[in-house]
Design brief:
CATH class of the largest domain: Alpha Beta
Number of domains: 2
Shape: globular
Distance between the termini: 23 Å
Structural class: alpha/beta
Oligomer: single chain
CATH architecture of the largest domain: 3-Layer(aba) Sandwich
Strand order of the largest sheet: 6-7-8-3-9-10-11
CATH superfamily of the largest domain: P-loop containing nucleotide triphosphate hydrolases
Largest sheet: 7 strands, mixed
Strand content: 25-35%
Order of helices and strands: EEEHEEEHHHHEHEHEEHE
Helix content: 25-40%
Number of strands: 11
Number of helices: 8
Length: 256
């Protein structure tokens, strides 16, 4: 198994009191899977994502990627946040090239790679624009192109579309689903949006309220082309709603 989480937990000290973000989390993820961590605010899903990414290692249990325990961030993986993280003084082209520069990729090769992913996210006409000249959705596309440009093994995404309007969010969901199929990347996405999870995921991991635990895992039996109004989509969405409202069940896997 590519990512192996075993009995993982994370506690913090807040105001001299111990706070448990999540506890006893066990999950196996295959290479190339698209996993959505779904749950209410405060359930520890972002903290779990950060632990997998190496920003805040677990305090109990373990997380291993490709057999190696996660203790710090890896240059092989990238994280996309809600706030875009673009450098305002750099153009779209130069923002996408940023990670390639740190990898010492030669200038001409950097430009070629950056152009490929700028085109993939539909921003070829805006290569020379600066972030302030772009909409929120366009800025998030730049951050996605920048992440893909360094050819990561895993892409971690922490509610990347949460600050966007509904139409822009749906368009970016379409884009990231297409990209995930083309690039065959392992993607772990945090969301509290049930329809977003159903639209994107191979499996949906539903977490309980604090302290976060895995309540259930649902395999999404939909093809890569998904219609939000189709009967099979609505059937899966309704099943997620049902699982969300269930009580006293933990770590149960479902296949519709």
């Amino acid at each position: 198994m590519y990512i192996e989480i075993e009995n993982a937990g994370k506690t913090f000290l807040q105001n001299r009191k111990e706070f448990t973000a999540f506890t006893d989390v066990s999950l196996s993820i295959e290479k190339g899977e698209f996993i959505c961590l779904l749950g209410p605010s405060g359930c520890g899903k972002s903290t779990l994502l950060n632990a997998m990414a190496g920003f805040a290692p677990v305090t109990s249990g373990s997380i291993k990627i490709n057999g190696k325990e996660v203790k710090e961030p890896s240059i092989k993986n990238v994280t996309i946040f809600q706030n875009y993280g673009l450098l305002p003084w750099r153009t779209v082209q130069k923002n996408v090239e940023l990670g390639l520069e740190s990898q010492k990729v030669p200038k001409e090769e950097r430009r070629k790679i950056a152009n490929k992913y700028i085109e993939m996210v539909g921003l070829s006409d805006f290569k020379k624009s600066h972030p302030r000249q772009l909409s929120g959705g366009m800025q998030q596309r730049v951050s996605i192109a920048r992440a893909l440009a360094v050819n990561p093994d895993i892409i971690f995404m922490d509610e990347p579309f949460g600050a966007l309007d509904a139409i822009t969010r749906m368009k970016l969901q379409d884009d990231i689903l297409t990209i995930s199929r083309q690039e065959k990347k392992t993607i772990i996405l945090v969301t509290h949006d049930i329809e977003e999870a159903v639209f994107l995921a191979d499996r949906i991991v539903i977490m309980t309220a604090n302290p976060g635990k895995i309540k259930s895992i649902l395999t999404v039996p939909l093809r890569s082309h998904r219609e939000r109004t189709a009967s099979d989509f609505l059937q899966v969405r309704d099943k997620v709603f049902e699982l969300f409202n269930m009580k006293h069940e933990e770590n149960i896997e479902y296949i519709i």
